[in-house]
Amino acid sequence: MTKIFASDFDGTLHFWDCEEDFIVSPADTQAILDFQEQGGLFGVCTGRPLHGLTKQIDEAPGLGFSFDFYITLSGAAIFDKDRQLIWNKTIPREAVEELYRVCTPLSTSPELAFVCSANDWWAFKRDPMWPQVRVVSSFDEIEGPFYGYGMENDTLEIAQQAADMVNERFAGVAHAYLNKASIDVVPDGCSKGTGLAHVAELLGATLTGGIGDSFNDLPLLQAADVSYTFKDDASASLHEHATLLVDSAAEALADFSGR
Length: 259
What we know:
The chain is of the alpha/beta class. It has helices at about 25-35, 50-55, 95-105, 155-170, 190-205, 220-225, 235-240, 250-255, and strands at about 5, 40-45, 70, 75-80, 85-90, 115, 120-125, 135, 145-150, 175-180, 180-185, 205-210, 225-230, 245.
């Protein structure tokens, strides 16, 4: 049996308000190592581009384990354990420019709305919280291929408004997912769920598991054979689609390992 487990990163494995000197908690790290030692494959399933993740996890203190696969940009680009691209889908450049033009006025900070291109994020202003984002002065400086667009909003209601607009105006080209009070826009037909399905097929999974904490993780939970979300830090809409409610990724992996 080949078991594959995909985990969201921000808010599931990595917590920005954590004051400890680690990216992923020691308890979660040990659970991942134990799962891999038993022959399981553990990967990340994130809205970030690859560089936006690896730049952080490769720096001190770094991870205490290695990912077996990377589902990035909410399923638009998938990489193997060696970070080689194994599947992707893009958005035409003209559509991304239009996305930026019509969505950015709804952003909390228009200069920090970002474009996902190749393995990177691009924006028009430096954000100390996201040093991975590359700063440009015009779209002419951004090299394709283009995978998506993202922005933060002041409220969940504004984020929902932006997502609805994208899904109506760009139907068949791009799709927007809520990520708390922000949106992630990816190529139409892509999601964290389709990302898990592609990985399962490519790696020959016989049982899949998934865990996440936010609205954009819903497709992941729906696609996984066994799904998990948090008792206290996830919305009721995720609770309805989870096999089990847990307090940590370590608890989810302990349950999944026994199946």
